[in-house]
Amino acid sequence: MFTKYKIANFEVENRSVRSATATGTCTLQTGIPEQKFYEFYESLARGHVGLLIQENAFVAIRGQHGSRRLGIHTDEMIQYHRKANEIMRAANDKIRICCQLTHAGPNGNANNKLQINEATAADFEEVVQQFKITVDTLEEQNIDKYEIQLSMFMRQFPTQQIFCRAIFLERQNQFLQFQPLYLKK
User: Fold this and answer.
1) Which terms does the record give in the GO molecular function aspect (predicted)?
2) Are 54 and 89 in contact (CB under 8 A)?
């Protein structure tokens, strides 16, 4: 448990993993972290967790799921992620950080959420581009890995899965996980 361990193409200090779980410590509409958010993640880092998968961060307002969730949908949001990462690394310089990126699709909170029966190819391309833009922006941050989570609605659209999979393959050394991988044959 307390020995180094290799996951994907990087090593963690120990086998202790904190999985992505929503804390509910971000502002309701914008997803901006409150002080409690930083304090919580600092305490996790101080506990010497080897790999910390941050709670899901929505890549578009349209894809926000649940209330008081973390956002990463605008360039402005990067400063909050940077601050959280700096706090965690100050508390534990050996911690590995993974950012979980999400889009809730038809399960989103927004009034203009994707409606499966009305969604067009352009709607899905927009979702894919939101993931791609977010990943490109995060490359500049001090994050070790990324994880993409797609809502259940993407299972029905293998073309969009292939687009998202292409983002993963293009940068596979940066991703911890890509889920779900539901590609129809």
Assistant:
1) FMN binding; oxidoreductase activity
2) no
Task: Give residues with Cβ within 8 angstroms of 150, minimum separation 6.
Answer: 102, 103, 105, 161, 164, 179, 180
Residue 8: which region, alpha, beta or left (left: phi > 0; alpha: psi -120 to 50)?
A: left
Do residues 41 and 87 lie in contact, with contact meaning Cβ atoms separated by under 8 Å? yes
The two three-digit tokens of residue 127, written as one number: 């979702």
**Per-residue model confidence as pLDDT tens digits over 115-148:** 767 777 787 778 878 887 887 777 666 677 766 6
DSSP state of 26: B
CB atoms within 10 A of CB 164: 20
Helix, strand, coil shares of the chain, percent, nearest 5, are 40, 20, 40
CA distances from 128 to 7, 122, 149, 171 (A): 26, 10, 12, 15
Polymer length in residues for the chain: 185
**CATH pick for 14-178 out of 3.30.420.10, 3.10.20.70, 3.20.20.70, 1.20.140.10:** 3.20.20.70
Residue with tokens 């929505």: 58
pLDDT at position 171 over 80: no
Joined tokens for residue 113: 């959420």
Whether 167 contacts 131, CB under 8 Å: yes
pTM value?
0.79
